[in-house]
TrEMBL record, chains A, B:
Keywords for the protein's UniProt record, in alphabetical order: DNA-binding
Domain of life according to the entry: Bacteria
UniProt DNA-binding region: 41-60
UniProt-listed Pfam families: TetR_N
Record domain HTH tetR-type: where: 18-78
Organism of derivation: Paraconexibacter antarcticus
Lineage: Bacteria, Bacillati, Actinomycetota, Thermoleophilia, Solirubrobacterales
Identification of the protein by name: TetR/AcrR family transcriptional regulator
DNA sequence: AGGTCATACCGGACCACGGTCCGCTTGTGC
DNA sequence: GCACAAGCGGACCGTGGTCCGGTATGACCT
């Protein structure tokens, strides 16, 4: 027997709207992969999805949000791992270890989805720092920081630990500077170790 | 008796070009201050300077670079202080102290010119990390890091120390999060201390 | 001085893109 | 069926950035 996940407060979304959302996401995913994120205009996505441009913007608001929406599935998996997954990413390990595992997971994610993540940071006029995925990451890190260093300024430390995981920074380190993924993980591990020592 | 500063290798810049550059910079400075950076289009700057839009773009390349050019004088002062100014910002103090002084100077600069610095970061598609002011800051920090921690991965540590001084990060901490300038300086001081300990 | 020439420079028409708007259409609950 | 809001789509706007035909400038020569 199926129970509704939540008794929807709003009148339920129309069927064609749902279908269109999916078609737009599929189109975006396909075009991003085919010709690169930077070479894919919103018009092209609308055309590929067989939908008017207005529809794209109504469903997703702007380009940055559409990019994030394309990664939503992957983001959900990550969040699930943070909350209920096995240690050290999930609960059960000491905070410093969890932070290191979080950094490694984020770096893997950046390696895999760099183009799209970068796009969402660059086109959001800085608002990605207030996007919902970022907020979740922030809460997670802040909680671990507060556990590891109850004395310190948790807000500031959280920023310090999240900044090197931004897509723009990653792209620069990885591709302009030529650092390897392992170097970045090692560096981040050191950083966490130093910042969480009493 | 006047000596030419440098025996210009290129044929010297035309007088009208020089005059136009200055008029554009003045116009941009004025409009940025009057109506805010975000509300000032390149067309408006060209009009205010009494110049065609093409001229603006030829002289400055793009919006991000124009923003940086507006701050050039201030940047020059800062760089001069780093190289020849009094300790601890200039030479003579231990590296850790110089790094802290550098952070404080950068934070003051952000407090004063936030709008313009933010604009140059946001509209450069991430290329501000390869701008000449950033390159100078990077070399400076990297040198100090290498002195303080000859054993460590200087490249990575340099990124870590520069990331919290970006305009986007600063804007978020200062205005969304409501941290005070002193909190940020204190936080940065702690960061440097922890990262430079042997 | 005055004239001539190559060319750096100018300016505004032009383009593509992100994003908005609003009149028409279509699905849905009654 | 009916009414009505949710949804649609494409014309439209302002913007950053490019391009190229025409022009003014400064070097050189006489």
């Amino acid at each position: 027997m199926e129970l509704p996940v939540l008794p929807a407060a709003q009148p339920r979304e129309r069927a064609d709207a749902v279908a269109n959302r999916q078609r737009i996401l599929d189109a975006a995913t396909r075009l991003f992969a085919e010709r690169g994120v930077g070479c894919t205009s919103m018009d092209a996505i609308a055309a590929e999805a067989g939908v008017g441009k207005g529809t794209v913007f109504r469903r997703f608001g702007d380009r940055a949000s559409l990019a994030l929406a394309v990664l939503d599935a992957s983001e959900t998996v990550l969040q699930e791992s943070l909350i209920r997954g096995p240690a050290p990413l999930g609960p059960g390990a000491p905070p410093a270890e969890r932070l290191i595992a979080f950094g490694a997971a984020m770096l893997d994610r950046l390696e895999e989805h760099l183009e799209i993540l970068r796009e969402s940071e660059l086109t959001s006029h800085g608002a990605y720092l207030r996007s919902s995925p970022y907020a979740v990451h922030r809460i997670h890190v802040r909680m671990l920081v507060a556990q590891a260093r109850p004395d310190a300024d948790a807000d500031y430390l959280t920023d310090i630990l999240l900044a090197p995981l931004s897509a723009v920074t990653f792209a620069e380190q990885r591709h302009t500077r030529g650092l390897s993924l392992d170097q970045l993980k090692a560096g981040y591990g050191d950083l966490v170790a130093r910042l969480t020592r009493a």
